[in-house]
Amino acid sequence: MLTFAVLVPLFAALLLAFVPVGHAAARAIATGAAALALLALVVTWIGGGEGFRAVAEVPWIPELGIAWRVGVDGMSLALALMSALLFAVTTAWPMEDLPDARAYYAWMAFLAGVSIGLFVTLDLIVFYVFFDLGLVGMYFLIGRWGHGEAQHAALKFFVYTLAGSLLILIGIIALALNMPELTFDMRAMIGSPPLAAAGMVPGLVFLAFVVGFGIKTPVFPVHTWLPPAHVNAPGPASALLAGVLLKMGAYGLIRIPLQMMPETFARWALPLAILGVVSILWGSVVAFAQDNLKRRIAYTSVNHMGYTVLGIAVAGSALGSETARELALTGAVVEMIAHGLITGALFLIAGAVWQRTQDYHLPNFGGLAGPAPRLAGVATLAAFASLGLPGLAGFVAELHIFVGAFGVYPWLAAIGLLGIVITAALFLGMLRQMFFGVTPPERAGFADLTGLELGLLAVLLALVVLIGLWPAWLLGLVDAGGILPLAGAEG
Fold it and tell me: What pLDDT shows up at residue 49?
């Protein structure tokens, strides 16, 4: 089933690349492929199991211990499910006057396949291949179908993240060479971490992973590629960049340095936690200063992924109780899911605004709740979810992170809470500027969301509400206790 979930979107991309079809047919093929991948992942979820499940393996380069290995635990399955859902929604999102629609949907399907593949693979080299192929898909989606300075933004995105991926490759090779027998099997490295905690080499390998995955996440100060990429990308591509591609960085931090280098991670957990808190505050403060709708949402991603990094750092610390560290890790994974759904919806909303006005400048709006009550309603719900209102998914994630963080780094947790206050202010200000007050004359004829747009946003936001009101099903799936490495496992 997992191989099917990866290959179906890739086959759809190949089909669209070589078979001439119209706009509607291309969208249907790409959306159908994402939906089939989602269905396959749901079947895997229903099948249940402990640890890594639905495992399959086919040798690829036996001399190097590389194979097509797939399998999921609760964390990777949750992220794969969220990714497949976002791809189904974003490919179904209506894009009017789209040039070369067949190529656009081919790249969307390609990106779906490699993104799902990254979360379900159990081989580090295959992980790296999918990591880099994701850069290619997003580069073309931004550079070809973006607006403004799209080509410059796409190039900056590609160069930044490619540089980070090369550091990741160095780290992967170092881990494999220190195994008793050469292999890139994630399960073997998690079960028997290859590098001792002491010495310069483990520290440098850890640094390579933190910088490489930190660029992708992104964290301060290696986040500067993110705002221009978002501002100039089409709405669905922005939703995928925030909802799926950023999660690759945070997932990589958990899967590789946290699980495969636990003692080295514990040595450097505090600096990583400080970096997470700096990202929380920097992202929220800079977002508050933005008067561009998309740039404001983009900087909140730095803020929210800072919460995730804080949770991961707390989970990898040698301080505090195991319960506190499990709570923080649960919160970090749930934050990835919640951020994907919420910010994915926010960027689709921003895309809808652009399609109608070709404008993101917040002072040019006002009073849109009158002509566009549907848009006002979903934007308000998404904004409140993003600022962490109780009863919505963001609150569940942040509560777990901060309860865990107070048990390990209480002073850092207290400082990080300031980010929630600033985030609330920036979203409330955005809602006031866009939807309340006097409607400018040029916005009087603003068209509300169509039925299709509303329905697609409703799918994402219904899950946000469901997680907020009944999180037990997601918390049970994530199972942080099964992800957290055993103390003293390294060496």
Answer: 80
